[in-house]
Specification:
By secondary structure, the chain is α+β, with helices and mostly antiparallel strands. The chain has a three-stranded antiparallel β-sheet with strand order 2-1-3, with helices on one face. The longest helix is centred in the middle third of the chain and has 12 residues. The chain starts with 11 loop residues before the first helix and ends with a strand.
């Protein structure tokens, strides 16, 4: 199942400095509600990791079965 987070914003500081990377988030779903979000693997830039975390935390519910999930957020300049 594909998941898109429209609320992920590329931090300005990262844009200015040309920072790119992938943050892998781990989270738990219980009754379609996100719980216990962790940064499983850092992008190498805390500002990108925090933007990814904040975007996932802003999602209220997800139509997923109960369990643990991993979600990569890729920050790539075009």
């Amino acid at each position: 199942q594909s998941l898109s987070l429209a609320k992920v914003s590329y931090p300005r500081r990262a844009l200015r400095r040309g920072w790119q990377g992938e943050t892998k988030l781990q989270f738990h779903i219980n009754q379609q509600v996100i719980q216990r979000i962790h940064i499983q693997r850092s992008s190498g830039y805390s500002v990108l990791d925090q933007a990814a975390f904040k975007a996932l935390a802003s999602v209220q519910t997800l139509p997923l079965s109960d369990g643990n999930y991993f979600f990569p957020v890729i920050f790539k300049l075009q």
